[in-house]
Amino acid sequence: MSEAFKTSDRVRELNRLAVRRYATRRAERLGIKRAFPRSPAPTVAEKILARSIPEPNTGCWLWDGALTGSGYGTITIDGRTIGAHRASFGAFRGEIPDGLQLDHICRVTSCVNPAHLEPVTNRENQVRGVGFVARNARATHCPRGHEYTEANTRRHRGRRFCRACHREECREYHSANRAELNRRRRQRREARHGF
For helices 178-193 and 163-176, what crossing angle results, to 10°? Predict the structure, then answer.
């Protein structure tokens, strides 16, 4: 396209906007409601469909707008920036229930397809993921190879501990420090009984 043609298109657009602005101001002075009625604002669903690209192999709707550092899409609605996947779920499937967050079933963070989003608890979302919590939740054996069974597992503050490993660690500690432990026992006995 030639530069002159681009310029003439730009001039034509500016003239159109100037005429519209003049007509709007004149209508306001005369007390007329609007010279040019505004077109209705696009709905959230229309915005999402306009900014997403359907991926035919997986069925994902890949967000073409702004992304966060972790790859989630963002969209501005009524002056607030929110996650595009949250806006998509709200527009197509309704509100996200209280206490739940959205999990990408497809594992693609930039996907805004509401069929690929499921409201789950924070714990469920972490366990389904690929992070530290998920790896530990899927573990069936301790680092030394003992199986996590009810009899062999002690739970404390949400963590699992292997009883067999604990027994081995205690045995190793006591055998390595037997003389020191016996000396402490003697001191306690002497302090209690006075001999």
Answer: 80
Domains of the chain: 1-39 (no CATH), 44-138 (3.90.75.20), 153-193 (no CATH)
pLDDT digits (tens, 9 = 90+) for 74-111: 999 989 999 999 999 999 999 999 999 999 999 999 99
Contacts 24+ apart (CB under 8 A), 62-66: 62/108, 62/110, 62/111, 62/112, 63/110, 63/111, 63/112
Does residue 99 sit in helix, strand or coil?
A: coil
Rounded (10°) angle between helices 84-92 and 44-51: 130
Give the C-alpha separation, 98 to 82, whole Å. 16
12, 39, 46 from 23: Cα distances, Å:
17, 16, 30
Q: Which residue has the tokens 């003239």?
A: 15
Model confidence at 7, in pLDDT bands (50, 70, 90)? Answer: low
User: Which helix (H) or strand (E) element contains residue 2?
Assistant: none
Rounded mean pLDDT of 138-157? 87
Amino acid identity of residue 87, one-letter, is A
> How far is 151 from 93, CA to CA, in rounded Å?
45
